[in-house]
Each structure stands twice: as C-alpha cells, then as structure tokens.
Amino acid sequence: DNNHVEKILFVGLLPLGQSSFLSGLNNVVPYPMHNLPSSSGRAFFSDSFGLTEMEVASLLEQKKIIDKLDILKRYYNGYQTSTGVRIFNPHSVISYLYNNVINYYWINSSHTTTLVKYLKMCGPDIKELLYNLLYSFYQSQGVDLLQDVELKSHLRYDIIDKNPDINAIYTLLYYSGYLTVVSSTDITMVKLVIPNEEVAYQWKLWIFDIIGMERVKTNGIYESLFKKNIVAFCEQFPSFYMELVSCYDIADAKRCRLYETWYHSFILGALA
User: Fold this and answer.
1) What gap in Å lies between CA 108 and CA 199, rounded to an integer?
2) Which of 28, 145, 185, 245 would give a disulfide with 136, using CB separation of 3.0 to 4.6 Å?
C-alpha cells in the first residue's frame, strides 16, 4: 500500500515453510548466497548480503586505520558467495569502526536458544560431525573432514522436532550465518565451513555445552600425541588428569591392591 516501495530485500531470513495456508507472508522468492550464476552470468544479490573487501578497505581508509584490514578479514570475513566474492559481516565491521575494538559483536547481538535446542537433540553421530567442523577450522594439516551436505529448500520446525537429521541441522546453521559454502556442485549439494574467528568462538561455546568440555580436552590431548607434540601434551595432561582423578581411585581400601590404583598413585606422584 506504499507508493514509494516497489520491492523489499530481506536479509538473514530462514527458509521456514508455511505453518498453514493462512500464512501472511506469501509470494516470497529466496536468493541464497550459494545460488549458482544464471545464464546471464550473475547470481542475484549474492554479494549484497554484506560488505566486500573493497568497501571495508574504503571505510578503514576514511577512519585512517588501513593497517587493520587483515585482522578484520580473520574475524569478520569469510562468507563466500557463488561468484567467489567473500563478504564481511556488516554488523561486526560497523561495530568495530564505532568502537575501534575487535570483539564478538554479531554473536552477542542475539541469543541462540533455538539452535542450541536442536543441536542438543542430535545423536552422537551428528555431534561428531559438528565437532569435526570446528576442528577443521583450526587444524592446519590439510585433513579433509568436510562432508557433502544437502541444503533443504525449506524447513518446518514441527518436522525438525520429530527428526533433526543432519541436513536439516546444517541448513539451519547455514541460513543462520554460522556456516558458509566453500564449494558446491549444484544448488543443493554443498560443502560447508565455519567462516571466521568470530563465528568459531560461538562454535566453541556450543561444543562445550553440547558435547562437553571433557570430550574437547580429551581430543586435544590425543591430537598432541598423534602429532608427537610432547610439549603440548605435557602442558595439557596434568590439569586434565587432576580434574578426572577421584579420591576413590587411590584411597579406597577395597581397591588399594588393584594395579589401576598403583598406576593412579604413580601418576599423581609424577605430577606432584
């Protein structure tokens, strides 16, 4: 009813299906960032979801802080479009320009209660895949842990409640901004990664909450052993062991003759 508005572009919407035929938001055409270019060679709006590197560099130049581009790329860049252009999170960049401090602006701008709810509903196999996403972001050994994912064209909360399959979870995370497409074979089959340091920090919090702190610590210790990084192992193992050992392991009269008890006593003595 507004003569001054012809079209509206909403950014950051989840592809949720209508809950009923009486839904008030109809005739919506989605343009995901991973949409492959059309016959004209252009992917509609794919580079309009955030700030390009050229735009961020221009803003930094106006603020006379051009030496901060690399750190902004590490924390706020990484969202890849189908045309190969990487874009920055506009909220985080603008917040940085206002405060002149690197911080987790975007992930602190809203809560993730709904996402955490569905992540906690996932089985151990899905949780393992989610942990691999975080591990692949930080690992530098070139190990390919990325999975082919089928992005859903639309989601229904009532269906996710009943069966939170991995593709639905990935779709939810992708459209919420916590993953980005690194490669795709078509509009549905893609590979996803964590885009930047800011988002990776949120993933750390999720992993600790969903999988558990002990699991994360244990994997780190195993990793240092497999890589023969004895220095890292010696730094991590003492605190980890002291959190696990119990007085019942070394002071139980019924267990004092077990070899395991002697082992615990030996380790405690070595760490003392």
Assistant:
1) 10
2) 145
In terms of Cβ atoms closer than 10 Å to its own Cβ (0-12, 13-18, 19+), residue 160 is buried
Q: Which of 213, 247, 229, 232 is nearest to 268 (CA)?
A: 247
CA distance 147 to 262: 44
Please give the distance of CA 84 from its chain centroid, rounded to a whole number.
20
Q: Assess contact for 88 and 71: CB atoms under 8 A.
A: no
Tell me the mean pLDDT in the region 196-221: 71
* CA proximity to 88, closest of 100, 107, 72: 72
∠ Cα 244 250 251 (to 5°): 125
Q: What are phi and psi of 46, to 5 degrees?
A: -65, -25
Of 153-157, 184-188, 255-259, give the lowest mean pLDDT range: 255-259
Strand, helix or coil for residue 182: strand
- Contact of 232 with 248, CB cutoff 8 Å: no
Query: Looking at the predicted structure, is the pLDDT value of residue 254 above 60?
Result: no
Q: Is the dihedral of CA 41, 45, 48, 50 positive or negative?
A: negative
Q: Which residues contact 102 (CB under 8 A, 6 or more apart)?
A: 71, 72, 75, 96
CA nearest 34: which of 87, 106, 70?
87
Which pLDDT band, with edges at 50, 70 and 90, does 118 fall under? Answer: confident
Sign of CA dihedral 168, 169, 173, 176: positive
Q: Report whether 43 contacts 37 (CB < 8 A).
A: yes
Tokens encoding 251: 């002071």
